[in-house]
Design brief:
Largest sheet: 6 strands, mixed
Structural class: alpha/beta
Distance between the termini: 54 Å
CATH topology of the largest domain: 2-enoyl-CoA Hydratase, Chain A, domain 1
Strand content: 15-25%
Order of helices and strands: EEHEHHHEEHEEHHHEHEHHHH
Number of strands: 9
Helix content: 40-55%
CATH architecture of the largest domain: Alpha-Beta Complex
CATH class of the largest domain: Alpha Beta
CATH superfamily of the largest domain: 2-enoyl-CoA Hydratase, Chain A, domain 1
Strand order of the largest sheet: 1-2-3-4-6-9
Radius of gyration: 19 Å
Mean pLDDT: 96
Number of helices: 13
Length: 253
């Protein structure tokens, strides 16, 4: 059994953290696998959506500290940097990324989920950022990412207290996009189906805009060229025709 399963199905790729006996804890090996999988997916023009989730109804229990401590030799800093590299690899994917969160989402699991564009969780999901309680600083670039997502006040509270919080609070704070009712598989399939049929070029442009905003490099003057390119794209033209046909059909009812 591998610690990371990579599955492709047309326009959708799934990265599945697969270590259920340890609640999908993140070892150096699985983080290296995430980095490698993202490097491969980044060049796959057929994939439009990348889903990150955990096996057996749990997202991730966070870093597997014993496996990290076992690698603290001459390359200690390189090993401890793997989480940052994995999060940044996810964040840099040209596809739209979706974190599907069930069960526990702890520490490093929160970091990887936060690196995705969309984060959905079930009502029973539980979150925690326990690093300071463990006695280690929050690393992997997580403090900056959480401050960007939640604002400094909320991020500091969750980091300093290491308290558990539930799905409804995660949604209120902005850590998750929405809390789904019912099975995650059904809600995830509905979301992915909506995103995956969008024109590929338009999805890539949207992702580039999001990445530019997150890094403070967004330039709205580039929007006109992106719009011109999209309007000339046959896939976009077909999508526009379908949209207008649906609008016309509704007016006739």
């Amino acid at each position: 059994m591998t610690e990371l399963d990579v599955k492709r199905d047309g326009a959708v790729a799934r990265l599945i953290l697969n270590g259920p006996e340890m609640r999908n804890a993140l070892s150096p090996a699985v983080l290296r696998a995430v980095v490698d999988a993202c490097a491969e997916l980044a060049t796959d023009d057929e994939v439009r959506v990348v889903v990150l989730r955990g096996a057996a109804g749990t997202f991730s229990a966070g870093a597997n500290l014993p496996t990290f401590m076992a690698e603290l030799g001459g390359k200690a800093e390189e090993t401890c940097d793997l989480g940052r590299r994995a999060a940044e690899a996810l964040a840099a994917l040209p596809q739209i990324t979706v974190a599907a969160i069930e069960g526990h989402c702890v520490g490093g699991g929160v970091v990887l989920a936060a690196a995705c564009d969309v984060r959905e969780c079930t009502a029973s999901a539980m979150f925690c950022i326990p690093e300071l309680e463990i006695g280690i600083p929050l690393a992997w670039g997580a403090t900056e990412r959480l401050v960007q997502l939640l604002g400094e006040t909320a991020a500091i509270d969750l980091i300093l207290t290491s308290r558990r919080f539930d799905a409804s609070e995660a949604a209120r704070l902005g850590l998750v996009t929405r809390v789904v009712e019912g099975p995650m598989d059904e809600a995830l399939a509905a979301l992915v189906d909506v995103i995956a049929v969008r024109p590929a070029g338009t999805l890539r442009t949207t992702k580039r805009q999001l990445m530019a905003i997150r890094t403070g490099r967004f330039d709205a003057s580039a929007d006109a060229a992106a719009l011109v390119s999209a309007l000339a794209d046959p896939e976009t033209q077909q999508a526009a025709q379908r949209y207008m046909a649906r609008r016309l059909a509704k007016k006739r009812r």
